[in-house]
Amino acid sequence: MAEKEKITVRFEPRTVRRCDQWIAEANCKSRNEFIEKAVNYYIDRLMAEDADSLPRSISVALDGRLSQMENRLSGLMYKVAVETDMQNGIIADLYSIDDDDLRKRRAESVKNVNRTNGKIRLEDHMRGEDDSLWLD
What is the pTM of this model? Predict the structure, then answer.
């Protein structure tokens, strides 16, 4: 823990009473901790008025939301990888494709994925639900 600098602060008695009333509510163990939290909060509010920076509380909240989104995207990417591996395994078991045909298929697949924003599933193609995507 970093060493703290000791300063003297004087408050009106009413302000001290108000601090004491809110110490427990703010999950603080002492007046010192409460006052430090209050000062940091006020500094964050002042910084919020500066368009070039975000207050710590907002930054922490954004970091938390971004972490949740990252976890969600990781899960979705995992599902896509499983889907792709399944398709590749099925195709490899069924066909022997030379390098030239493989390059042509890759180019066609890139075009199809771009056209549909990546919303292509093997099951949909096998059921004929969206054959227009695969026609030459």
Answer: 0.38
Tell me which amino acid residue 10 is.
Answer: R
- Rounded Cα distance between 43 and 46, Å, is 5
Domain extent listing, the chain: 13-53, 56-95, 97-136
Judged on CB neighbours under 10 Å (0-12, 13-18, 19+), 37 is: middle
- Given a contact cutoff of 8 angstroms between Cβ atoms, the answer to whether 119 and 112 are in contact is no
pLDDT digits (tens, 9 = 90+) for 72-115: 999 999 998 888 888 888 887 788 888 888 888 888 878 877 87
Round to whole Å and give the CA distance between 17 and 129: 71
